[in-house]
Structure to design on (606 residues):
């Protein structure tokens, strides 16, 4: 097992490392910012990479925001970025449904467990959907609903896909309806399956948690279109046409970001220690997911 | 692997089988009834067993009902039973918390994810609790809640246990609060972890599903006080003081009821085919969970 190289403060090492890549895929939360707090020297570091002609892609599992929402967040924090550089798990799922799954209309409707980011990206790909933020589904289950779910009266016969993402409005009614669609043969997808969401300096339930009730009921996991699923890597590559051997994944989570880069056979991976994973996780003997290199903070790449 | 003996229509076989036991533990849903439909000859069969001096215990994983609620259901369906004969997973959990876990007051408060059945049984054992059916927790999470969960303002410092049961009002707020209690060291229990709930001739999310978001977030399963957990068998035995070798578990689900009896080293198990599991499940070669005997319906025991 090769050791991860520590680059903070190593000017020559950084220069050599950067020279090996043309494309950098960035995780956002935990790398560029934490919540609404931007890390030191992030804009300068991204500008520096651009000045070296590196292509930047922001790959995020957060399904509650669309690419347009993300652009607003970049603007607000003063981070230079273009909408086209953002690749979120909602977009990844919409692209998968529209361009790869391609169920024949009208049986191609999606039942959404999630927030507006998913709806916006499905709209952008012309995919019909129900559920999501529709207030009709944001209510308690009532006794008569059990019969009407069982006999199909509460169901749309054109639903062919259930898409599960982070849902701050998850409830029993939606889970029961989605479960019924799956029992009737709908394709089971997720934007991502992160178990937790780092917020307010602690952990909250992530998309894998808000969707876990459905997975438990049906007894299997969805196909995830977010990191570390290679379905997302394929979608990113399809859009940006990069050379994997000249591409580096930058992230804070070993089991999603770094695994994503390793499984995708990228030329390299770079861990930052501003997020979830601690260096002890990958410096120990026998650990499987080891980044090629690591820095304390992204800004350390400025040397 | 011994074969399961088919008893329906086998008068001599039934007589021999019944003579081997003094106590019968019954699962309810799928054995005595399905929803509000009572199966043929159930009252007569139970009366017959009582006439043979058998002790009957009704062991149910349904946590939404208290023992008193269950008694009402028995009465309504015309099934003779006493409250003392009912042993539900909510009661099992309340007994475990009050008599085995025995956390020192005031740090013994329970945060409940579930319905009134759990609250009633906690009351019956004098266990303090919050959450449950309290309308204050039956709402959407708001932006400020994230901070107030993280900084503890929305938390009760006396909570030492999170108890998860079937919750028709599960939501992100409650899961996030429970997750925070667990991150702070609360004991993690469940009334039961059945993945599905058979209703209206199809499957709905069960307690294991409505609580799966929390298990996924914290990355481990709760200690279950329902079937097939032996914590429940110990509690039943503690109350009824039976001889396990002279006790038979009767149920419709291989992976909960029959497993419960086998793991508990009972003298025997009897499967009925009126519920979830089909006989193909245990008649196949190489299957691990095989009941000692099976009948098509409970009423077949009348011969």
């Amino acid at each position: 097992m090769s050791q991860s190289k520590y680059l903070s403060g190593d000017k020559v090492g950084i220069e050599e490392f950067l020279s090996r890549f043309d494309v950098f895929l960035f995780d956002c939360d935990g790398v560029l910012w934490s919540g609404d707090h931007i890390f030191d020297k992030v804009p300068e570091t991204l500008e520096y990479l651009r000045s070296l002609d590196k292509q930047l892609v922001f790959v995020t599992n957060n399904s509650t925001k669309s690419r347009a929402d993300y652009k607003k967040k970049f603007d607000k924090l003063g981070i230079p970025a273009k909408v086209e550089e953002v690749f979120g798990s909602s977009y990844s799922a919409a692209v998968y449904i529209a361009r790869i799954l391609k169920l024949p209309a009208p049986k191609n409707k999606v039942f959404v467990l999630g927030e507006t980011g998913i709806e916006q990206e499905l709209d952008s790909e012309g995919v019909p959907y129900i559920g999501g933020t529709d207030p009709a589904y944001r209510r308690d289950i009532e006794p008569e609903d059990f019969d009407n779910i069982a006999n199909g009266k509460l169901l749309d016969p054109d639903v062919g896909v259930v898409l599960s993402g982070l849902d701050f409005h998850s409830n029993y009614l939606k889970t029961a309806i989605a479960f019924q669609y799956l029992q009737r043969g709908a394709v089971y997808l997720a934007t991502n399956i992160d178990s937790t969401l780092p917020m307010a300096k602690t952990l909250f339930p992530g998309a894998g948690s808000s969707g876990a009730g459905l997975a438990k009921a049906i007894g299997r996991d969805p196909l995830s279109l977010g990191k570390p699923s290679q379905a997302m890597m394929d979608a990113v590559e399809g859009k940006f046409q990069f050379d994997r051997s000249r591409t580096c994944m930058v992230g804070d989570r070993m089991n999603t970001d770094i695994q994503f880069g390793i499984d995708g056979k990228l030329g390299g991976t770079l861990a930052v220690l501003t997020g979830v994973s601690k260096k002890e996780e990958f410096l120990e003997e026998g650990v499987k997911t080891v980044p090629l290199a690591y820095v304390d903070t992204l800004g350390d790449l400025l040397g």
Notes: The longest strand of chain A covers residues 55-60. Chain A touches chain B at residues 138, 140-141, 146-147, 149-151, 167-172, 175-176, 179-180, 183, 195-196, 199-206, 208-217, 219 (CB under 8 Å).
